[in-house]
Each structure stands twice: as structure tokens, then as C-alpha cells.
Input
Amino acid sequence: MRILETGSYQEMSVLAAGILGAQVLLKPNCVLGLATGSSPIGAYEELSKNCQNGLLDFSQVRTVNLDEYCGLAPENPQSYRYFMDQHLFSRINIRKENTHLPNGMAPDLEEESRRYEALIEGLGGVDLQLLGIGHNGHIGFNEPCSDFPRDVHQVQLTESTITANSRLFSRREDVPTTAITMGIGTILKAGKILLIAGEEKKEIIERSLFGKVTPQVPASVLQLHRDVTVITCKRS
Output
């Protein structure tokens, strides 16, 4: 595991984009696992600039996102599909059919979970998975629980996660309470993992990387992966 500390959010974003971009250069048809939230926005901005400047070509890249809210249509501004389109996909030369997220509007969410797990496997697995981390240690939407979920699944969001995400909604009661997420097992199958986090996540980062491996701190399982890079930053 490599742990890199940067002096600002911008520095963290440039470094993260460099690692993601290197993966694209090394394997033009790679599968990138992507994340949403405030942490990766700067990295996506840097990737977009590099693509527009002709330094990166995403025409063969495939992407799979960690998760999606249940009950939000793709055109809903709070959906993760909308987030990815706004912050990355519409700004790079990637084919829309090569960008994948769970379908939170699927009539059968268990079947959708199986479909998405099979899709990831059918792509050959994730070459590089980008992660953020929640204050309770969740990665994707894998909340603290009694065991590590193996596959893509539907999850009930905890009150702390709902509260944290409510800043993005007009009203707290508008925040979805369920989501579809890659399981811990799905995440661990990635060839490489890149975790980025701001200074406000310092405590949970320390618990995750240096504490006991336990499903009560889902990110602690990253200690068992063979190729993890963690980038932290001081609050800018």
C-alpha cells in the first residue's frame, strides 16, 4: 500500500488524474471503476482538460461506476448517472455505450444487481478502481455491517450517510434511502485501487488503514488488497 499526502485538494486531484490517465495510456481499452461525490470532481476536471488538450484518448475506455441511488431516473440531477455525465462523460471522447452504472429504476433490483455483477465480469474486470470514503468508513455504499458483502447488491443507507448526502438535496427527506452498490468482493477484484480523501477524513483513514480489518469499518478491507494507492490532502 502506498500512502501519499498532498498539500491541497488541487494537488491531490492532479496526482489522482495522473494515475488514472497513466492507466488509460498503458491500456487504451482499460476498464475504469469510477466514483461520485465531491472528492473526485477535481480529478475529473483534470482528466477532461487532458483529453481536450489531446493528451488522453478515452475512445476505447470502458467505465463502471460503484453505485447508484434507487428510485432516481438517469436524467434526475441528483442521480449518479447525471453527475458522471456532467463532470466527466460529456467532456471527454468516451462512447456513452461504454459507460455503465447500475439502473436504480429497474423493476427487479435483485436481478439488476446480478446483471451488473455479470456485466463487470463480462468486461474482464476492473483495471483501476477509484474510491472515496465516508465518515463511517463506507466505500461505495457498503455501510458498516456484520460481514463484507461479496457481490453487487441493494443496500439500506445509514442515517449518517443520508445526513451527509442531504447537503446535495433541497430537503433531507428527498435523499434516497436505498442504493445499488458494488460489493466489497467486487471492489477487491479490481487490479488496482486508488482511494482519495480530504483532511476531514483523516480519522477514518487512520482507522481503515492501520486498525483492525472489520466489516464495521468497510474500508479496512483494503489492507488485504495487493495494489492500493491512497492520496490524502489538507483542506484547501
